[in-house]
Every structure is written in structure tokens, then in C-alpha cells.
Amino acid sequence: MAGPLTSGKVKSKIDLSKKKFAIVVAEWNEEITEALYEGAVAGLTGNGVKKSNIVRKNVPGSFELSLGGLWMAEEKKIDAVICLGCVIQGDTPHFDYICQAVAYGVTEAGLKTRKPVIFGVLTTLNKQQALDRAGGKLGNKGEEAAITAIKMLDF
Ligand code: DLZ
Question: Which residues bind (2S)-2-hydroxy-3-oxobutyl phosphate per the record (predicted)?
Fold first, then answer.
């Protein structure tokens, strides 16, 4: 196996039924980000998180995940934040600027608030690569992001 367990049931010392999660979803490439969202919710509820303890917020694009993620992490009642987006490479350097900015911003949001703020952003060369990772043949990175959040709470 190339990495840690990223789907299914996670062993955890904490009572996940008491933990509150925010999922921030970018509206760009909506077909993909909605599938990531479904995967993230399944990953959380499959591990005992109550649906009523999951708050969803939308932002226009992945670039806005940094601030949306920070705002949610600053909420006292929120224990962890999952940021979901999909950036698909185009013909201009826009892709690189967005990917770098959101990776930096999501990291900053976690460090600033000292809470898990998870980078659930697909950065792909084309739409097929994104579909493969959003419930397709390579799994669902939204679910992986949810499992990562749980593991960080269990640190
Ligand atoms: C502008 C833009 C472009 C070209 N591509 C994407 C993309 O593939 N995925 C995504 O989430 N957002 C994209 N955006 C929008 C930016 O993230 C952002 O919303 C705008 O630049 C406004 O700040």
C-alpha cells in the first residue's frame, strides 16, 4: 500500500459522535466537487459522525477555499474543516497560481487556528483524471480528506 488507510473504517480513540466538522466546497467544476462532497460525508458518517454535526459552506472557486476554510476553523464549535475543490489545468498559468495559493492558504488556516484544515483539492491535467478521483476508478479523494480529518483529531 502506498499510503495510510484513506477509506472505510478508521480506528479512533475519540468519540466522533461529539465532533463537529465543516466542509467547504468550491463551486467551480461542480460535478466533481459535489462527488467529493458526497465522499467526504460518507467518510465521516461511516465513522460515527452525526449528519447534524456536519456544516456545509460553498465558495465560488478553489482560490476562495483558503478564506472560507479559515472562517470555518475560527468558529469555536467546529473541530475540523475539510476543503474540497477541483482545479483542472488550462492553457494559462492560472492553474499554478490557484494551486499554490490554495495549498498555502489551507495550510495557513490550520496553523493559525491550530485545528485540522484538510486539503481536499484535486489538481489534475484534465477532467477524466478528476472523475477518476471523485468516485471513479481511483476512489474518492473527498472520502480520503474526511479520513484524514478524523486521523488528525485522533492525534
Ligand atoms: C478562474 C478559475 C479557473 C480558470 N479555473 C478554476 C478551476 O479549475 N477550479 C477552481 O476551483 N477555480 C477556478 N477558477 C476560479 C478561482 O478559483 C477563483 O474563484 C477566481 O479566480 C476568483 O478569485
Answer: 91-92, 133
